[in-house]
Amino acid sequence: MKVWTDEFSYDASLYYLNHAAISPWPNCTAQAVASFAYRSTQLVREYSAWLVLENRLKQRVKRIFNAPSVDDLALVKNTSEALSFVAFGLDWRPGDNVVIPAQEFISNQVIWEALTPYGVSIIKVPLSSFTPEADLLAACTTQTRLLAVSSVHPVTGLRLDMASLGRTCRQRGILLCVDAIQHIGATPFDVSESECAFAMAGGHKWLLGPEGLGAFYCRSDMQEQLALHEYGWYMLEDDGNDPSTSSWRPAHSARRFECGTPNILGATALEASLALLEKISLKTVHAELEIRMDYLVKGLNRLPGIQLHSPIAPSRRAGIVTITLAGWNATHLLEALRKEGIVCSMRGAGIRLSPHFYTSQQALDRTLITLERLASR
Length: 377
Description:
Elements: E1 15-16, H1 27-41, H2 47-65, E2 73-76, H3 79-87, E3 97-101, H4 107-113, E4 121-125, H5 132-139, E5 144-150, H6 162-172, E6 175-179, H7 191-194, E7 198-202, E8 214-218, H8 264-280, H9 282-301, E9 306-308, E10 321-325, H10 330-339, E11 342-343, E12 345-347, E13 350-353, H11 361-375
Parallel strand pairs: 1-11, 3-4, 3-5, 5-6, 6-7
Antiparallel strand pairs: 2-8, 7-8, 9-10, 10-13, 12-13
Helix pairs in contact: 1-8, 2-8, 3-4, 8-9, 9-11
């Protein structure tokens, strides 16, 4: 029996292909939160236990990111918060520019566009499906300070070659900032191999965790290069609980970005979810997801009227495939799929399907059969 067989027990009438939006919790995560809630009613909430839990979570995040040290990691509210730490922490100079892909997720646009009052310009690059890395690098100039990308595009699912992109950025002195929320937990991601300066991901998608908690990787040489805009007791190098402290300094680690009391409820949930992923092994998770993606993509390609708007090569995809169906607009197609219990999302003019490693063949077949029937109308 597979490790995860009894971990996902949501409504049997639903066929869930929406992990690129939000993932259901595994049962072990719900149990961990229920246990935390019960202990809280009994006033069993000790600070020392919080620290143990937080350290255990950071150790798991370190392994999943392949970060050099837990000191390079901060727990944050979400991906957008971490992006904002970077955008408003760097010492921008008038004339600097930031290069981003065109049609990025809105957070990866507005956060950088908010820098324009500081004299920073934003270069948006349309990406081809054949040479996206070359497209991005060709747009960089001598004034490019930072390249900001989603390592897996949230709509098309295009997966960038982060190793080659990072290597060239490092050679050219360009900082690489990676939104990895659609990458980590779906397919291998490695901050060391990518040589990125910054990477971030919320925990509520492929990592099976809660909303409101994510991770921020800040390369050690960049931690004190980011100006701080949030302060509090938890980000201090020395004990922030000591009222006799007459002087203080920010932590000499990424904890400097964690200003106040940590989200222990969220950490309880995310730690349980990551424990499951590690128990299964990330290698197995990635392999099982690829089996399901291969089955789904091949099935979609056989259907009349279906057009794929996502890469089909395994090296260029993660867990997302976006489609359109001839004769249907996206709104009506989404409604028709949901009536059949198929949970997915509309993105732009298409429908985004995103299974995970545990998605049943029944769910994939139900989706394909439904689309085939809709195509014949």
